[in-house]
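Hey, can you fold this?
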Amino acid sequence: MGKRMYLNAFDMNCVVHQSPGLWTLPGDRADTYKDLDYWVELAKLLEQGRFDGLFLADVLGIYDVYQNDKTACIREAAQVPVNDPVLLISAMAYATQHLGFGVTSSTTYEHPYSFARKMSTLDHLTKGRVAWNIVTSYLDSAAKNLGLDEQLKHHERYESAEEYMEVCYKLWEGSWEDDAVVKDRAKRQFTDPDKVHEIRHYGKYYRVPGIHLSEPSAQRTPVLYQAGASSTGRAFAARHAECTFISFSNTEITARYVRQLREQVQLQGRDPKGVKVFSLYTPIVAPTGEEARQKFDYFSSHVSYEGALALLSGWTGIDFSAYDPEQAVEYIETNAVKSVMEGFTVANPSKRWTIREIITLVGIGGLGPVAVGSPEEVADLMQAWMEETGVDGFNIAYATTPGTFKDFVELVVPILQERGVLKREYEDGTYREKLFGSGARLANPHPAAGYRKIREGQANG
């Protein structure tokens, strides 16, 4: 029996998430993203496969860096059109009993006061099965459409995110005492006003004087994911994250990230093994290895080169239309996702990546590794990846949907269960309890636990 493997499915409320061009293949249902039936059926499939969660990506802008124009991303449906992921969760939660739901929301563009209510509402409706993937955003197009000339600089986005977290913790953890809701019909009193407190936050970026609008939910603070892999993002994760999501393509870089993250977590006084790391991973599986390789070749022949360039240019902030496909990439400092360029350059100096090689990687499943083989081969590769890198599990991306997920559930999951690395049944409890086997709420020394004693008259700035 090996180390337990945690699994999320990785999806987005759009047509092309990370496999540009493959929505055109027969049987692919990515274009039905706007129908609840697709999402409910996917959630049921994932619960059948004993996935821990469905991890929903999101962006608030478009990928218009390539050719300095929106044409390619719109024509290729490269993460546009894209709908709000939050509105999917209630229906999927109602159709399932155990599956967790991680939703991406940006600290840069949504106010913490209204966001805190939204997440508390979801935590109530899902009975404690919701997580928040904390991002600071990276697209200038989002900033411009939300009233800014350009997005905040990378370091300032994280500085404001620190205060954002403080406001959310105060609202979720400190505003309402555990026994504030009394539901006393005889006294005609639903809530004890003396046990609901204003947070009185007056900071550099936010002014939130009042109370949280929602009564305490099962988890109060949702499970906290974080997807920043830069040095700044890693430091932020060490302070706040319970789970991190990374997308490196080789074991050496992945293992270094995991090691450095756990070291930083320990410096924060937290248990280094108490933060779970999920690696992006795309399985291409068939009953035999030869069939799987044929399937991969078929998928590869349908990848949109221009769609992949549009995605890569948006992620990095670099217009790759000016580059020759055989040109080796060099590190360029940008205000976008720093870890993408770092992963192909300074973090991996022994490998000289050409534009064409990166696009070949991006074309199926994004920036993470792709495992091609029989069910046994894919299971072997995934277990080896965990052993060599120290990650706790995977965000499973798809080439086609729901085909990739269906193949994985039917072919690979039974083997992982037979090997004792994937659970056969769900544990009881909230998402946090299922992941960590501890209480429903965050405990010391996590910073959220420090905001549970807010009282009237106590200023918090």
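Oh, and this one too while you're at it.
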Amino acid sequence: MSILVFLIILALLILVHEFGHFIVAKKSGIRVDEFGLGFPPKIYSKQWGSTLYTLNAIPFGGFVKIFGEDPHSENISEEDRPTSFYYKPKWIQSMVLVAGVTFNILFAWFLISLGYGIGIPSPVDHSGFGEVKNPHLVITEVMQDSPAQKAGLKSGDYITSLSSGASNLKDKDLTPENIQNVISETKTEVKVNYVRGSDPEKSVSVTPSNSLSGGKKVIGIAMDEIGTLKLPIHLAVLEGAKTTYLLTKATAVGLFSFLRDVVLFRSDFSQVSGPIGIAGVVGEATKLGFTYIISLTALISINLAIINLLPFPALDGGRLLFVIIESVKRKPISPRFVRNANFIGFAILIILMVVVSTHDILKLF
């Protein structure tokens, strides 16, 4: 089930991205030869104007064929040049190229705004509009190979009580500070009662470790008091815009830091997840509820947008870089060089995906 939900999410995000390229190209007077839902083989097609709209057998995603997008100017007649991507001004080419990324960001804004409209999980110290209601103490992170992970605790679980010896925390006494104090002072183990999604309450015993935090006893979790924030539509849109901006900024900074660490040979690839790892996260989100799926989809959409903007061949950012170079040089880059660069870039991306996916599979065992 989680794989199916992940594939639906991925298909939707790809479709949104390709629709961005499609609509901006159309509005810019560029001929779009085909807009496909799914991938071939073709099931049904309908010609509408200059565009062939197709429904394809593999339903996950979509594609758009923009006339003159590849640098093969020698095959374009004088009559067709006004509707060719290749012969449009560089600023129009740039708009078409960044349209996919822009639509992914706008889609994330829509999803986050929708989440605020129906009620979305938010920390109680939320600084925006509205009041957070029905707060719970939620596990926001579980350290790798920690006692908590070995006991089966996961991000998204909310703690209903914690006890050790004579200490028993629940209700208003259940705060991150009080829990940390009980854990640090216990001489045996702590009993954690928790709820995951709509499942019945469960209980686990966890033995704290002093090897994870400089000699201080911990079980390896981060916690926050999180409740539900529901806003009227106009405030939901405003809060959605603010949250989308903050998430986009944080994602860009995080990706830049990771790439910098790669260059300096100090990156931690164990924290990188591919499609299989993301499918697992989606599976956990489906157990927690619809609003978690909305939030996760928005976050994936933002990540896809930022990654696509990287100036790497085969990505939109790489193609945009070629357009900028041509603008500066005032002459076109060799079509053969562009094709070869995009082919090599695509091959590298495929190899990277295989490596990361293999790592995801190994983590399952």
